[in-house]
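Study this:
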Amino acid sequence: MAVGAVISCTGVSKSFHVLDGRSVWQIVLGRNTGTIRRVHALDDITLTVPKGSFVGVIGLNGAGKSTLLRTLGGIYSPDQGRVEINGDLSSLYELGMGGRRELTGRSYAEWILAIQGICRESFPDLIADIADFSELGERLDDPLYTYSSGMEARLFFATATVQAHAVYLIDEILSVGDQHFQAKCWRRMRNRLDNGASGILVTHDWPAVLKICKQAHVLDHGKIVMSGRSDQVVRWYLNRHVSVPVMSGRARFAGEIPQTVTWRVGETAILPLVVEIQEDLTVHLIFAVEHMAIGVGWEIVINGIDNFVAACAGRYQVDLTIPNLPLAPGNYLLDINLVLVNPKNPLERQLLDGRGWLKGSPIELIVVGRSCVGRTVLPVEWDLATT
């Protein structure tokens, strides 16, 4: 195992033999041996997780993410390669009650704690913690088959994470439940990470990868096809699988757009832009400010400031002006987009041109000065002139 690593996966491959449905019945009836397909779920996977960090794995359905976790967790044995885990392991796979739905919530929690090898003397305190975290109240003593999916989610997560572990294997579980419960899940996992926990998170929720992982991989048909810093990996993944069609050539940003902009707290901030419109179109400019701290979080600080540019062909100077800039000092990202608006349906829009980190053309905003205090409404002004 690499020095300082808690998870090491070297050259791991895993395949399954699958019978098609018709062949199964033919075998039962003794007519033939059936048609067997070999499915390669993992193909030469190599990755490591350093101590004290989480690594993200994203991919489409069928990419092999769950198989990877089960191989790392020891449920599946690899056909080739080696898996090494250094530390107390907790596996949080997709939600499931393990087929014991006749149990009450309390009995289920005790069953899971027993499987984890926890002594029964600790059960009362741990069950009290589970009851408090899950917020099930008296329903903890009702059978699982009476639970809603949200109640099951709360019970499963509360039970699986009631004790701190050194290493976690997490499959989608942080994206279940309502927003209130998701926030509780994130606080608990952030607490575990701050106290030295490590692990792997596989998910479709790419903001979750940015929130907790500094490094990430993209898994596609059992192979790692992209690795690196999580923001770069997420951008590559989205551009490949969730790209937005761009109606290029009809309107665009002209002139040079700086890669870095510096504004000062409390002063007037100006972002000059030149827009060229080739046809008589109803064009709007949408501006947003995002804050990203890799491994901590990503959020939109200012969202969807929308301004009409023009409805006629021409070249326009657009100056974004923000008096008394109320942003706190720090590093941000600007996202600017030209969109075509349907005059008959203003909510119907198509992207014409854009700049931003997801598009591979980030504009870094550096805000300097003393911190502003309190909450305020951002006073955005636009100056528009033909050129």
Remarks:
- The chain is about 20% helix and 40% strand.
